[in-house]
Structures are given as structure tokens and as C-alpha cells.
Amino acid sequence: MAYINRLLTGEWVDPITRLPNEEFAKEIITELENSKELFYLMRVDLDFPASNDDVSKFVLSRVSSVIKHSVRIPKDFVCKFGDKSFGVVIHGITDVELNKIAQRITDSLQYLLLTYGDEKIKIDCNIDIKTVGGAR
User: Fold this and answer.
1) Would 33 be classed as within a structural domain?
2) Is 114 helix (H, G, I), strand (E, B) or coil?
3) What was the pLDDT predicted at 17?
4) Within a domain: residue 118?
5) Predicted pLDDT at 133
């Protein structure tokens, strides 16, 4: 119940993306590491130019939407992870399906061209995938 209260009060919610924040994600990942079920943790690191904090916040809010629409909500768990990173916890899929999700995120972000004022913003990303859980 403590997890839910901290989410509902906004303590564990990123104010820009409205996703669970890194602190919450670390708590969940710690729990998953001891799980008998195998989970995949996908880290999406972004690279984009931002002339100021407003531009960065704009890009992060748009990217969070793209990532959420690229995964299997509500089965997959998306969170904000660091300044320009997102995490996705995925389970119950094959390696082929996992790679399709990673490719869908990469393609969606590469084709996304954002405009903020006079700025045209192109986004690059790097996706790293590791397994957690699967304890026997």
C-alpha cells in the first residue's frame, strides 16, 4: 500500500512526463530481481539538442507519449529514468517480440521531428536491454 500512496501523492511521479520516476522504478526493479519470473529491463537513452530547459521538457513530454504508445500498455511498465532516459519493464514475451518493441521505439523516435519555436529537434536514441529476475 505504501507504493500506491507514494504514487497517488505524486512523490514518485515525474512532473514533466507524468510517469513514475526513477526512485519508484528502482524500488520495483529491486523487487523484480528476486522474482522467479523473468523480466526484461529496457533502458532508452536519448540524445537531442536543447537550447534551454523548456525545450528539454517539451521533448521529454513528447517522447514519453511515443514510448507509451510503442509498448504493450498495461502489460509493460514505462518510467522516467534519469535526465534523458526512460525505462521499460517487459515480461511474458519472446526475444523476437522484445526486439520488435525496441525497434518500434527506435523507429518512432528517429522519424519524430519536433518543432519548438524556431527550433527543429531530431531525436536519437540508444536502447540497452538486460534481464532481471528469473531466480530459481
Assistant:
1) no
2) strand
3) 95
4) yes
5) 87
DSSP-derived pairing of the beta strands 113-116 and 85-91 = unpaired
74 cis-preceded (ω within 30 degrees of 0): yes
Q: How many CA atoms lie within 13 A of 70 on its CB side?
A: 26
Contact assessment for residue 126 and residue 42, using Cβ atoms and an 8 Å cutoff: no
How far is the C-alpha of 9 from the C-alpha of 5, rounded, in Å?
A: 6
Q: How many domains does the chain have?
A: 1
Each residue of 25-60: pLDDT tens digit?
Answer: 888 888 888 889 999 999 999 999 999 999 999 999
Q: Which residues of 5-16 are buried (b: 16+ CB within 10 A; e: fewer)?
A: ebeeeeebbbeb
Contact by Cβ (8 Å): 127, 42: yes
Domain membership of residue 104 as a residue range:
2-27+38-133
Q: Is residue 22 part of a domain?
A: yes
- Residue 109 in any domain: the answer is yes
Cell of 23: 526512485
Say if residues 115 and 16 touch (Cβ distance below 8 Å). no
